[in-house]
Amino acid sequence: MKSVLLGNGINIQFGGKAYSNDFIMKRIIFNARANKYDPLFNGLILGKDIEGIFRAFIDIANKARNGDYDGTGISDDREAIEDFKNRYTAPITKYYDIMLEDWFLLIRLFFITNADIKDQWQSVKQGFERMILDAIYNDGMITNVHQNMNKNVKRFFAGFNHIFSLNYDCNLEALTGRHVLHLHGNYSVLADSENPDIVEGYIRQQAGQLVVIDEFRHCFCNALLDYSGELKFRRASNIKKATEEMDRWLELSKRDEAEYEKQIALLKEKNECAFQFVRTYVQPHALKVGTDYHFDELLKLEGELHIIGLSPNNDSHIFRCINESKLEKIYFYYFPETDKVIPVTKPYELLRVENLWESLDAKKKKYNFRYPIPNNPEVDKFIEVFNALSFDPIPKKKIIDEINSIPQFEANRLFAIVRKKLEEQKNLGNPKSEDELIRDFGEISRIGLREGILPSSLFMLYIMSYKG
Fold first, then answer.
1. pLDDT for 351-410, tens place per residue?
2. What Å distances lie between residue 77 and 102, 114, 126, 380, CA to CA?
3. CA-wise closest residue to 26 among 133, 145, 135, 108
4. DSSP assigned state of 325
5. Considering 139, 174, 209, which residue would you say is the last residue of a domain?
6. Gap between the Cα atoms of 397 and 411, Å rounded
7. Which residues are CB-neighbours of 126 under 8 A, at least 6 positions away?
8. I want to staple 236 with a disulfide (CB 3.0 to 4.6 A). Which of 6, 223, 293, 354 is the partner?
9. Which domain does 85 fall in, by range?
10. How far is the C-alpha of 180 from the C-alpha of 170, rounded, in Å?
11. pTM of the predicted model, to two decimals?
């Protein structure tokens, strides 16, 4: 039996830097600046305020790293704080240096140390979840990543008996036509609270309480997002336990209707919500109690498991399931050398993931062009302006190196996208204020972030083309 477990490294390999942590986080800020998230928050919080929150939380991150929150909260919080300190050993200066799910820990710390507003923790966490899910979704571009995977890659993945994924996209389904087990949910399935096929969602639908926004449907999916892997596993386990309990009620209702009515009447006196839940489940609707996150299948695995695109520093619950399974051997494909120490008690073999891609003729192509970039003060002035326009100061060398890594055919494709956006802006009329001017430049920055190119590099590359 051969199984494979895939992480976000797959999307980065075939989708590029656009799916790296820093680009995802930058998209949140620029999307907020463009007021994209107004519908998510009913206009109650402005884009610039969202940006301010992210930048302000850098201070909380450094305080956590320095031990200022040691002993704070419950055991889950304290364990997460220790893990955070172990991973962030240097001062944090950029918001995009903080990994996606670590933001939930920082939000948690903010609220548990501000007792007067701690009741808002869940609603704010939900808002962050939806912005992160949207930034990963990348205006739907993530759904096309499989188009960059060749026949060799397709054949490789199709050769496994089971395919597990920690990603929310369905690229592997599109590539192989196979069923993929999403351990953390996926964009194509609504959250339990919004899904009419789930008891909670059905009840909310009947009450007219569903809140899905069509253009943000992907943000209301059943994704598991939290600051601790154990919290994710606990949520999945609670759904399993609840399902077992509901099945007992269902069996009782069929076996002894009188006893069922007696017990359900007692439940109604104690807990009206629980009563409604049971009543809804036992009715002939074929509803589910909640999302199946497939951890049981992971725990029951036998044979060998290949792990690709997953960092051993995250998702400890995944490795715990692996260690508790009947697997005989693990093949762990690592990228950076720092990922070679993995928390696995089974026999394992470390393999360089670059060798895998090379064997599948899927190694990333690297380009080293020599665009005519003069070394004079005028270029420095341009870079200063580009950095100001993008609100993301980047060293000159990094900008030039990135420009030189972009082949001419790709540059031409980017130019066409930028020109189209500029034409749209021109048709709307000249900016009438500084805010409108900044918004227009922000739209160009968003193009770069969607495409996996730094805004400053895109600005400079385009200007070079225009001057030429």
1. 999 999 999 999 988 888 888 887 778 788 888 887 887 777 889 899 999 999 999 999
2. 12, 15, 18, 46
3. 135
4. S
5. 139
6. 19
7. none
8. 293
9. 16-139
10. 8
11. 0.94
